[in-house]
Amino acid sequence: MNRNDERVSVAPETEKKPSVTPQVENKRLSHLTEMVNLPSEGKHYEQGSPLVSGAVEIFMMTAKHEDILSSKSLMKQGVMVDRLIASLLVDKRIRVQDILTGDKNAILIASRISAYGAEYKVDLMCPYCTTMSQHPFDLSATEVNNGDHDEVTVSDNNRIVMTLPKTGIEIEVDFMNGVKEEHL
After folding, report:
1. In Å, how far are 13, 113, 115 from 123, measured between CA atoms?
2. Max intra-chain CA distance, the chain
3. Whether 100 contacts 40, CB under 8 Å
4. How far is CA 101 from CA 53, 93, 122, 160, 182, in A?
5. pLDDT in tens, 44-78
6. Which DSSP letter does residue 175 get?
7. What is the pTM of this model?
8. DSSP assignment of 97-164
9. Close Cβ partners of 169 (under 8 Å, ≥ 6 residues apart)
């Protein structure tokens, strides 16, 4: 679902000019967006966060976003992905550092699909015969695992509690976000 209907505007009719090739005249598109459902479903964010809704609205990729992706300096600094996500977010109250890693990945995949399509082709080399082949992946067919398992529970302090199958030891695992990644 998106709110693009009111963002697409068509200029009033002007004098028609003859043209050899068919084209759309006087049409202007501004800031098209799409909604991305978050794998966390918003369950693991603090109350009051815009992410609690379980979805986030992002802009469709433009040349500005491609400039971020191709910036060698941002890549060297290790901030390219966070800058891209920050520029894609419609709600500027959302801090990229607070977004869970799995939710960041969902935003990146959704923006990639809307910009370039769901098919993602990679070149693979056979480890035995060293021949190269191209394999397409369908990014829209990605299954989301949002952690709803019988053997996993969420504690009062919003951490995953599970028992390790071989040792029987109960452990608590925290959800990873940008702040915790940087700390590690």
Report:
1. 49, 19, 21
2. 78
3. yes
4. 17, 18, 23, 15, 12
5. 888 899 999 999 999 999 999 999 999 999 999 98
6. P
7. 0.70
8. GGSBHHHHHHHHHHHHHHHH-SEEEEEEE-TTT--EEEEEEEGGGPPP-----TTEEE-TTS-EEEE-
9. 163
